[in-house]
Amino acid sequence: MVPYSPLARGVLSGKYAPDIAPDSESRAGRQDKRLLETEWRVESLRIAQRIQEYVQDKGVGIVEFAIAWVLNNKAVTSAIVGPRTEQQWDGYTKALEVSITAEDEAFIDSLVTPGHASTPGFNDTQHFVSGRPVR
């Protein structure tokens, strides 16, 4: 499996907050239709904030952690990423140095039911409801 948008169209980039208007140059600020239809949910932004706080305590950036988490799924062979800048690319490659622990998996599972989207009540039939196979 090769997932795309492992940063949830920027929600897991750390640049958005549920109580702050997005930068007008960002995807959310430009009212990107696909983002607004999918990942742009208050619940998702709150979860992203919690993840960012968690990884800061570990000394890891949210981008690196999110990419590493995707790659820690043994069903995933690669991830389709879309960096716009060299700095973003550097963050993506640093993910290869991040190890995801059982504690990390449990933390994410405590925020988002395995196999489900972050928005309660939304079920994506393209994902495993029983969870994800980890490496």
From TrEMBL:
Annotated NADP-dependent oxidoreductase domain residues: 2-111
Matches recorded under InterPro entries: AKR_Detox_Biosynth (IPR050523), NAD(P)_OxRdtase_dom_sf (IPR036812), NADP_OxRdtase_dom (IPR023210)
SUPFAM superfamilies reported for this sequence: NAD(P)-linked oxidoreductase
Any single Gene Ontology cellular-component annotation: cytosol
GO terms for MF: oxidoreductase activity
Protein keywords: Oxidoreductase
Pfam family, any one: Aldo_ket_red
Taxonomy, superkingdom: Bacteria
Protein known as: NADP-dependent oxidoreductase domain-containing protein
